[in-house]
Design brief:
Layout: E1 6-10, H1 14-25, E2 30-32, E3 41-45, E4 55-60, E5 74-76, H2 80-87, E6 93-100, E7 106-111, E8 117-122
Parallel strand pairs: 1-4, 5-8
Antiparallel strand pairs: 2-3, 3-4, 6-7, 7-8
Helix pairs in contact: 1-2
């Protein structure tokens, strides 16, 4: 299997990051504990661990820092321009406005409140 099963997006300010992702993606993140380290702060995107796609969380850890240049996570959207338009109002910014990737659809690149760059992908529109 080569499916991504989970992702972490590292943050410095959990409340600020949670508000950003909930606003831009029009979703809710739920608190999630780490049974091995109660100091870890996590807010999970919904996933039942059996569906297609990947679950993940925004995570605050002392040994991990947010920022550009690491892995890129792409969130699937109906029309990535919709989520892109919410980024600035949620405290982030648009790095690359919606553009065509040919037969594979469209992509927007945004920056969150923590300095992480994330992608938005839509197949049509």
């Amino acid at each position: 299997m080569r499916k991504i099963g989970w992702f972490d997006i590292y943050v410095e300010d959990m409340e600020r990051a949670q508000t950003f992702y909930e606003t831009v993606l029009d979703t809710s993140l739920a608190p999630m504990g780490d049974p091995n380290d109660p100091s870890v702060q996590m807010r999970a995107f919904g996933d039942d661990f059996t569906s297609h796609g990947a679950g993940g969380a925004v995570v605050k850890l002392e040994h991990a820092q947010p920022g550009p240049g690491g892995s890129m996570v792409y969130f699937s959207c109906e029309d990535c321009a919709v989520e892109e338009a919410r980024a600035a109002g949620a405290g982030g910014s648009v790095v690359q406005p919606k553009y065509s990737i040919g037969e594979h659809g469209f992509v927007s690149i945004i920056s969150d409140t923590e300095g992480n760059m994330v992608g938005l992908h839509s197949v049509a529109k």
